[in-house]
Amino acid sequence: MPDKTERNWSMYLHFSQLASMLVPILGLIIPIILWQLKKEESSYIDANGKAVLNWIISAIIYYIVGYLLIPFGIGIFIILAVGILSIIFAIIGGLKANNGEVWPYPLSIGFLK
To answer: What's the pTM value of the predicted model, to 2 decimals?
Structure first.
């Protein structure tokens, strides 16, 4: 099991996505910075960082699809769903990371292995 420091940093990686609720770009920048600073120190932190970034990249793609589908009436629902899922997934991922688990986000595309 990862030590407390690794679990804490991994939890911060997941929760840092919630910064996008204040300033949208921060939910992208902060996780990348945290991951880049700590990924070499721990394979556990690296794995959690990849899970977070895979979701962020996937969510951006889903948002783009949602925006493209706005004229057809379904786009706003996709955008809202992705926004809600992003909050829920960040919380679940952070809690699981604090318990020593690496949680692959549902609907996440595995860009980083």
So the answer is: 0.93
